[in-house]
Amino acid sequence: MALRRGFKWDAANSRLDIYVDGTVAARLNDTGSYLTVPAGGLTVTAGGVTVTAGGLQVVAGTLNIDGIADFALDVKFNSTITAGADGVGTDGEQLTSGGAAAECDWAAAASLLKFKNILGIRNDADKVLEQIVNTPVYDFRYKRSNGGEHVMSTGDHDTVYTGVVSEDAPWAMHFKGTILNPINTFGYTVLALKALVGRVEALEAAV
Question: Any bridge partners for residue 180, and if so which?
């Protein structure tokens, strides 16, 4: 009579077969001491699963966690990372962190008009040109450490960059004045070029 529910030692394969409704639901292997679930997956209704060594591997299928996943050490992702309600992003966007306890979201320097609330057109090209001309430009390398403080950088500590610093050019920064703002930097450059073109045209007209 076939075993309907319970445990049966398989001496030929050195494993303990676990039967549910006449079918092997799982096997606890003596060699290597690991548990295999042939079909249907493994459901833990209470208590959770603790893996003290060897790790947890999902060879095929999906690992669904309906609740909080608390990781005490580093987490390595080798595939797509979704950002919850913010979706999976699109080409050109980057997954960014808002800091401790903040959700990741997708960000990019979007340029389509439909993504912007226009506040007005700038008409102070001469003032902007003066700001740019009076801004010091440095050669620098990014620090690897800063007395235990987190160092924001490109991650390239060997390349010599040429650029400005936040303290001298707050107009070219965002994120509380800590990171170069590519939108403003280009916008101010266009305004400065407008000022220069205006001066060149005035000189040409005076000749």
Answer: 173
At residue 2 the predicted structure's pLDDT band, cuts being 50, 70 and 90, is: low
Phi and psi at residue 189, in whole multiples of 5°?
Answer: -60, -40
Residues 179, 171 contacting (CB under 8 angstroms) = no
Domain boundaries, the chain: 1-64, 113-206
Position 193 scores a pLDDT of 98
CB burial class (10 A; 0-12, 13-18, 19+) of residue 106? middle
Angle between helices 125-133 and 182-206 (to 10 degrees): 110
Average pLDDT (173-181) is 95
Q: Are 22 and 28 in contact (CB under 8 A)?
A: no
Beta strands 34-36; 94-96: pairing state: unpaired
